[in-house]
UniProtKB/TrEMBL annotation, chains A, B:
Segments passing through the bilayer: none
Protein name as annotated: Helix-turn-helix domain-containing protein
InterPro entries membership: HTH_HxlR, WH-like_DNA-bd_sf, WH_DNA-bd_sf
One Pfam family cited in the UniProt record for this chain: HxlR
Length: 124, 124
DNA sequence: TTACATGCTATTCAATTCATAGCATTTTAT
DNA sequence: ATAAAATGCTATGAATTGAATAGCATGTAA
């Protein structure tokens, strides 16, 4: 019997089951678990800004990521339905783009944060 | 000579210096580095919803976090100016509340994500 | 002065990530 | 057809990070 491609993998943090950092499986905690892994947000961000990307292109664009970790993150992001494969390499799914859209304001705000830290460090 | 309290620590990812996952030090990458550590977002989230919290209260509310990690995350969040100490324990700063506010939509959206995954898993 | 709460640190062990090499398969060039 | 290059990884070992648990130093209250 063949595996069906769209079943949820038990191997990535997903809502409804206990995840690292929460026994409740609350969606936000599952999301925090998934995104709170090194490079998870960075990969999604980088991919969305360079779609499609092959594995090696992503690797280069992420500068320092190791192929083992990239492969693992891609697997998790695919299991979570944020990333899939398409023509010319990896691409984001509709869900992945929604998530990215949630991160964009964070990207803008991070500049304010940088400014605030900077001003603070200049204090006499 | 005494250390001044508000100087940036070199020991946490901050904009303008290379961080894990990016040599550029782009603010968003520094933020991703900081938040992409186990429990970082969870601690901020939990604290914001239970202000103020003592160390032990936070520990309980986070359910599974170990004191060493909580202490480390608190140190980073404080260095990043997201958390500070106040009457009755740890509290968020104005910056920390801004960041939390950026995460709130993510929390709402995570429910849609959960629903989408769920529907997908019910497919024939 | 004993008891308890608080904010950690110490220690040991497990899991994760880094850095690098390299392999199997497909595509491209000659 | 063959060789070279690109692609998508896997393997390995070292370094870093996190989990689990114990316990200590300080402060407060009884």
């Amino acid at each position: 019997m063949k595996k069906i491609a769209y079943v949820k993998s038990a191997d990535f943090p997903h809502p409804g089951t206990p995840v690292r950092g929460s026994r409740s499986g609350a969606p936000i905690m599952a999301l925090f678990d998934l995104l709170g892994r090194r490079w998870a947000m960075g990969v999604l961000w980088t991919l969305r800004e360079n779609e499609p990307s092959t594995f090696r292109q992503l690797q280069e664009r992420c500068e320092t990521i190791s192929p083992a970790v990239l492969n693992k993150r891609l697997g998790e992001l695919r299991a979570a339905q944020f990333v899939t494969r398409g023509e010319g390499g990896y691409i984001t799914t509709a869900l992945g783009r929604e998530l990215y859209d949630q991160l964009v304001p964070l990207g803008l705000w991070s500049k304010d944060w940088a400014k605030a830290l900077d001003e603070m460090s200049e204090m006499p």
